[in-house]
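Morning!

This is the sequence you dropped in the shared folder:
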Amino acid sequence: MEETSPEPGDHAARRPRIADEPRLAGIAEVLAGARVAAELYDDAWNLVWVSEELKTLLGEQDEARIGYGFHVLEVRTNELWASSATEESQAEWSRANLGYVLHETPDEILAGLSVDMEGAPRMPEELKPEPAPPIWSYEIVYHRPGFQPLRITCIAARINDDDGSRIGAANLYTSALPAAMLDLLARGDERMFERMSRLIEPGRRQAAILFADLQASGTLSRRLPSAAYFRLIRSLTTAIDQVVGDFGGIVGKHAGDGVTAFFLADDLGSSSKAARAALEAAAGIAVAAAELSTGGPGDDGVPIDAADVLMNIGLHWGGALFMGQIVTGGRLEVTALGDEVNEGARIQQSAREGTALASKALIERLDPDDADAVGVDPERVVYRTVAELPDAAQKAIRDAGGIAVAQLSGFGDSPLPEAGNGPG
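The structure's back. Tokens below.
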């Protein structure tokens, strides 16, 4: 028979569903609540359920294309699944599963499969059809175009009814990374990881942009012992990331003692909420930095004054940033392209003495409720252009000289009118 891939509309009434077996439906509910990548098969090895996490891993939400209701041999040879696993992984799948599948699938179902059996997975000669054990495992290499290959461990389990008869099978997929590496992931902010995961596919997005940098860090690094300076930067970076995550943002890059963050309108619910989150995060970063000062000798005997940890912050709005993930063998980060990103960096570089400068484009995104929440009245703010700032460098004037900015109140002294304090 000619090989075919399940397409929308191909599901006939004979195709089984999860609702056909209440026991499997209950297991699906538990697996969904545990947020694991998993799939369930019925007693004839027909796919009846796939978790949302596995759909995300496959990059496919269409249940017909995934293969709902189709036999595992049809599923594993359709375009989606076949393109997601290397040839070696397909051979490993056959070694680990095919004997059980052929033993437990009725002959009449095997005869009616919509798959070219010449091209179907082959059982290694040393294996014979036999009943599935209570539990077994195997490892595959998952490959999604445009991403690094990912080693995945599959833990498979036989599902029995109360009388011991087989009613299906469950496959749970987990990372094959050792526990020590998983511990590194566990230290991160799960909420931020979820927001980052939504940027797998790059595209245009609206977002508030935040740049923050430690003032006079070069002087401070020369004054402090290297170990003390490292501890300070580590604590500062950790605190900033925590603040960004708490307000619904995504950390972009860490560059020395500086950080870039983005607050997406899609994540926060509106452009106003995104602008508000960026403003609140800016205030939180200033507070977090001030709390790192010891006022006198610290725990290690090295004094760190409040003037040593002044964070200069720039805030801007990007109406059509091109955002996405950059994944290499050693790191994953979110980046954004657009003139507004460069302008935001120049705004930050023009701030001094622990001040925060916000662009007119960002402040005027605030609706009345969000503006009131952050203590800003967009109708009373008076701005200056970056070119008019006394500390603006030539690069800032060149790249962002015409951008109107205002200093946020409570961020230090500045000749600029504070946001909300302009003339009526």
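Headline: The domain at 188-407 is CATH 3.30.70.1230 (Alpha-Beta Plaits).

More detail when I'm at my desk.
O.
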